[in-house]
Hints:
Elements: E1 3-6, E2 9-12, E3 41-47, H1 50-57, E4 63-71, H2 80-83, E5 91-98, H3 105-116, E6 124-125, E7 128-129, E8 135-139, H4 142-158, E9 168-171, E10 175-177, H5 185-188, H6 193-209
Parallel strand pairs: 8-9
Antiparallel strand pairs: 1-2, 3-5, 3-8, 4-5, 4-10, 6-7
Helix pairs in contact: 1-3, 1-6
Amino acid sequence: MGGAIASGVLVLCALVAFGSEEPVLAPAPAFDAPKEKGELQTAVLAGGCFWGVEGVYEHVRGVRSVESGYAGGNKADAQYDIVSGGDTGHAESVRIVFDPAELTYGEILRIFFSVVHDPTQFNKQGPDHGKQYRSNIFYANDMQREIATKYIAQLEAAKIYAGPIVTRLDPLKAFYPAEAYHQNFLERNPTYPYIVYNDLPKIRALEKEFPDMYRQQTTKS
């Protein structure tokens, strides 16, 4: 990502600046779970630097909490300095806890494929390169797997992207929260150059493309 603040030290990772990708409005999923009352549910997604992914979903109605972390690798390697090497199997991910009466898993994926990231970029996202920045859906159960699989097929058939979708589908084995300084990074650092250039445009795109699902107040407010 553009940088990380650890122990008061600013570590710059990207030497070249890139703007946020232009959003591509994906159609609503043809197959989805119904909105109904029940226990809170969890979605785990990876779409580049977790700062921006977390920041977007903090503004989505029906989301109760969002946490940055790591998924896809082992517990011993779930540390930013190690994951940044790109060889741990981990992807920078977010865990989204949502109310199924207000928000469906399919709607979460629609936002993911529309404004969160570019699903055609392989092992990179914008200025960030490496397997840890891959596009990845970690499904928690068979229903999530089916919704994601059918939605990707629907999007491929719609041909709305310039290239093929490279998003991986993997079962969620574990999610490991990232270090405290990564949590709620966008809201705490709205003027940080990487955030301004790469991530704030995603928040604006969410508000424009999904006004009924956008909320000004975040889950951390």
